[in-house]
Amino acid sequence: MKTTSTALTSIPGTPKTLALGITAIVATLALSSCSALGIESKYDKRTSHDFTTGAEGKEKGTLPLWVPDEASDIKEMVRTTGNERILRLDYSGALPETCTKISVAGKPSVNELTAGLNHEEPRDANGLADMVQQQYQIPLLSADWWPTGQESRATHLCGKWWVSTVGEKVYAFAPEEKSIAEHVLTEQANIQQAEK
Fold it and tell me: Which residues contact 150 (CB under 8 A, 6 or more apart)?
């Protein structure tokens, strides 16, 4: 299992946000020793990608279509047993017109999430409502290039992706389904128990 380090920074927000942030940090630490304990994850299998340009990543069918071709130094972490993805790229231009600004940074409304999902995968209203309801809106993936709590700074939705810009860095997070996230958290808790 590939492990990554997580930069520990302050976690802004409510006690719920703090608790979820701590859970993510503990989960990252727990995963770092799963191979040593002989425990293999069933729900938290992951892979990472590095691309020189957005065009290269899209040509390989990996990056989402909204990533500009001119973007560079692209890093992506993907849960292969689910839907969650985190992405970082260098880009100094404007986000594509298909990306829409959200009203409150880091807190897209149900209507905004629904519109984003509908743009990416058009469905009937009930199907979209179910997809929004099933999103686990805190990243469980981590990488040394992903600042803790970056999703709380999202200013745009590009389809299902929560996107924020810091200088010439663009960060994006695609949420996991709650059912997968619950299994991942349970596995991580079991790994932590096995370490004791």
Answer: 139, 164, 171, 173
